[in-house]
Each structure stands twice: as C-alpha cells, then as structure tokens.
Specification:
This protein has 511 residues and is an all-alpha fold. The chain is built from 19 helices and no strands. The protein has one domain: Amino acid/polyamine transporter I, CATH 1.20.1740.10. Helix 2 packs across helix 9, helix 7 crosses helix 16 and helix 9 runs parallel beside helix 12. The protein is globular, with a radius of gyration of 22 Å.
Length: 511
Amino acid sequence: MIFGRVKPLDAILATAEKKGLHRTLGAFQLTMLGIGAVIGTGIFVLTSEAAQKAGPGMMLSFVIAGFVCAVAALCYSELASMVPVSGSAYTYTYAVMGELLAWMVGWALILEYAVGASAVAVGWSGYVVGQLKGWLGIDLPLALVAGPYAGGIINLPAVFISAMVTWLLMIGTSESAKVNAVLVAVKIAALILFIVLAIPVMNADHFEPFMPLGTVGVFGAAASIFFAYVGFDAVSTAAEETKNPQRNVPIGLIASLAVCTLFYLLVAAGAIGSPLGAQPVAGPNGEVLAPGSTALAAQCQAIVAGGGLEPLPCSKEALAHVLRVIGHVNIGNLLGLAATIALPSVVLMMMFGQTRVFFTMARDGLLPEKLASVHPKWRTPHVVTVVTGTAATIAAAFLPVGKLADYSNSGTLFAFFMVAVSVMVLRKVDPDRHRPFRTPAVWVIAPLAIIGCISLYLSLPLLAILVLPVWGAIGLVIYFGYSRRHSHVGRGMFDVPEASPPPEPHVPGAF
C-alpha cells in the first residue's frame, strides 16, 4: 500500500497542460528567483547562530550544507525537467513513490515554506530594530521585539511583516520578475559591499581555534545554516510557469545555488576575520550555551553591560554589526537597510511556494477544494493564504529564528531525501522516458544526497529532530481521515474536473 496509487507521469503532464499556469519565466529570471529566495535570513542573520555552534569552523559548515544542496539540486534538475509542473518534491514523489509518500512530502513542505517564512520574519525583525536604533536612536523595549525565549513577550515587528505579506498575497499584490531581479540586485550589492570592506581587514589569527567545539559543532552548524540555502527548490515550484522548463529549470536551480555558495563563503570569512571574531560565547562557568536560549541572551547582555563589544553570536543583525565595528558605521546601517528592504521578499517567496504546493495537493483531491479556492476578484488562493499566514505569524511572534530554522530544515531535508530516492527509482522503473536533463553519475550523486540529508537531519537539535515524526503523525491522521477517501487518483480520476481558474500566474518578487 505504501507505494500504491502512483499518479502516472503522463497524467500529471496532461493535467498541467490543461489546467496549467501561464509560462512567462526564462533562465535568467529563474536564477534571480532562486537567488532571491535563497539569500535572506540564512546569511544575514544565521551567521551568528553558526558562530555559536561551530566558531570559525562554520566555514566548513557552509561547505557541507552547500554540498548536500548541490547533489540534491542535481536530482531536482532531472525531475523538474521531466515533470515541469507545480508541486515540487510533492509532485515528483507522487509520480514515482505513490500517494502516501507524496502526501508526507507535501505535508513536510509546510515545515519548509510556512515555518521558513516565520524564521525569515524573525530575522527581519532584528534588522528593523537595529535600523530604528542606528538611524533614529529609537530603542524599542525588549518585551515587544523578542519572544519569551529571550526575555521578551512578543515579537511585534515579526508579527507585522508576516501579517503584511499575508495580506499582500491574499489581495493579489505581486510584482513582475523584473522587480524581483532589482531586489535581488540590492541584496547582492549589500553582500559585495560587505565582502569588499571586511576581507581586506581580515585577521587570520581569529580563525584559531578553528573548530572550538569539534566536528559535532561543525555538523550542528551545517544542519542549522542549511536554512541559508533553502529556497533554491522554489525554482522548481515555478516550473509550470517557465518557458522551455526542460532547459531553464536546471539552469535556474544550479546557477542560483552556485552564486549563493560563493557569496556565503566570502561573507563568512569576512565575519570571522573581523575584530569580533567568531568564537562561541561561553557561560559563567565555561559551559557551552545553546543558541536562542535565555542563558545565552543573559550572557550577551552581561558582556555588553560590562563595556565589551557585543560578540558575533549575540547579534541579531550580524553583518551590519561587523561593519559598524570595523569603522563603517553608516555603511553598516545601509547594509542593515538593504536587508530590511530585501528580506520581506523571502517571506513573500516562501508563502508563495506554500500556496503553490497546497494548490497542487488540492488539485489532486488530497485537500478540500475549498481550501485552495481562488478568489473571484483577486484570483488568489485566499483561504489557504490566510490559514498559512496566520500560523506563520503566530510562530514568528513567540519563537527564535534559530529554532524556527531548525524546524524548517527537518521538513526540507525529508523532501530532498525523497527527491533523491525518486530519481533512482524512476531510472529503474521508467528508464526509457525522455530526460532533457540527466543527473550525472546518478548512482553516486543520489546516494550522496540521501546520506547528506540523513547526516544533517541527525545533527539537528533533538527537538527539531522530533518535530518531523510528530508533524508526520499529524499528517497521517489527516491523510487516512480525509485525503485517502477524497483522492482523485484513488477514485480513478487522472484528470482534474472543471473548477476555479488557477491562482494568478505572476511570481511575486517583493514589495
């Protein structure tokens, strides 16, 4: 039963052709879309999280996480070129492994997109608070800019941006890919400026000890900053809206990942070599403090109160903080401003990806049709947007960015794992199908992706590891309670009935 109810690839392609979205995106736009979705909270904020877990060894963490994403991207490219439709890993799994596993992947993608949007919202909050203090001298009370984890009550800036993005998506406000490209250019320019200013004054002594917490710390940081790469697979969710997807989707996936990896390594080197260094903050008795913990927040406050510089692992706006410390206060503020302007585009992109996955699952009958119904005026899936946005806003209000990123990673790693498995299975069961892009050395690349995903998953904090099976159990209850009985494939329907038009075809960039 576990591999039953496979939806034939031909039926998926026929459905997409009949009920598909308008194809408008090219290779360059997809690459910009991927970079726009990837460069965000991961590099602008989680650099401090990585420093607390691995110290200067976070350079290796970026390499490890980037490698796992690279081999997964090669697997994604083959499937996306063969099945250029919405739904990403969910659709690929449906076509290869069957409905039950496809449902589990789709359910896990909620962790990637919705929880990921919450994490980015919290990261944006840190930069907004820094901007208000740096430009206007306004110091917002801790109770209103942090959750209980850091001695506050509620993170109001994170609530604001989550609610705003939800509203914009619901009423149909979306920008063209050209506007998205401009916002991506702003983020890239900010990172280039950081690299140009930080690398020349880099102190090599700050790279020692390189791995203060050993390989466990390096892999733990890799598991967390894996979030810095999450988003490149959003390119595949736009496959149904892409011109010549067999060529352009693989280019978009791999090019966006390559550009982001290069930036991450250079930025990490500049941050580590700054006067702040990147050594983990220890407690009063020399104990290792967990990122996002109240103990770390208290120790950071004590260091600053004693007249010391705020350590890198303590900063909520890591890169802007580094530039201010090396003497570029105004430029640091400008970088913070660039992050403040650009990060909402990532929140928007993640919620966009979530609505596309829900739309596809509802199109298959696994979710109530009403949930993904399209508003007659706005032509957006307004119901599911409100549901997703409400959940993301609540999470952003009370949870720290690091924990949200870890929860998101658990779902993403499962989806990547299933994509790698699907590539190998499809090579066996349907070897003659046309593959516009073939994963090179697939019997090496796909197993490496599987091993990498498992290794990073097991390196997550225990709570994040447990989130996936608990979330999966909830998903199974819904599947057997509702989805299995209403599945189109289960009822012998391999085409979609005439219904509401699909959501508006424009890919949101930013506002």
